[in-house]
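Treating backbone geometry as a discrete language has practical consequences that deserve illustration. The sequence in question and its structure tokens are set out directly beneath this paragraph.
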Amino acid sequence: MGNNRNVRSSFIRLMWHRIGEDDIPGLSAQLAYYFLLSLFPLLIVLFTLIPYIPIPHQDILAVIREFAPVDTMKFIEKTTGEIMSHRSGGLLSFGIIGTIWSASNGINAIVRAFNKAYDVKESRSFIVARGMAILLTVGMIFVFIFALILPIFGKEIGIFVFTQFGYVDLFIKLWNTFSIVGSAIILFVIFTGLYWIAPNVRLRCRSAFPGAAFATVGWIVSSFGLSFYVGNFSNYTITYGSIGAVIVLMIWLYISAFIIILGGEINAYFTKKNRSNC
């Protein structure tokens, strides 16, 4: 019992030390900036692809609305609506280029943070590193689209099946209750792939699980926590005016970036520990 307590205390102290040593706050601010740059180009791509995929734009926004603070969600909806009202034939290509470039910069920032966590330098060439970042970006976009399509078809199929047995109302209640579980599973898969592929270290897939689990739970809890705080105890719109929504968005992105990078530090800790025990 005492040994377990000492291990937990040592782990927490080490993580606290690594936060300062690897400048996680600074890297999180950098990553939040790239997240902001890639958010709206990504939404442009998804909205422009709507005529070709069976996803209403409200379903796309619903995924973000599930976690984002209220003021942030209003800002995203307003900005996206203004962009889409002036869309042109070249908007899709602009959105794709902007998303891939901005998001791949974000992936590069994540790679640098993970390499620092593992105490390794980036030995891959610029072309390989950028190509990997672009592939990860494209892969995450497809996973995001799949995450949107699956619930839509899953719900429709479930309603059809359960209607035959007269339990459609029960199915809808269960579906709404456990939808967060599906979101958590998808997030876990995304984080696992990111933690496994991005660092310049040969890793087994399962070595990415601790950080992926932490990032999934941490991101969901922090998103709901920030949303609850902003909605009940603070009103940035009153304090800062129209820019308040941007401030809340940046805080949300910063917290998200901090959790992602800290998940990489956790994976690095367990990887080094396992190798030292071999």
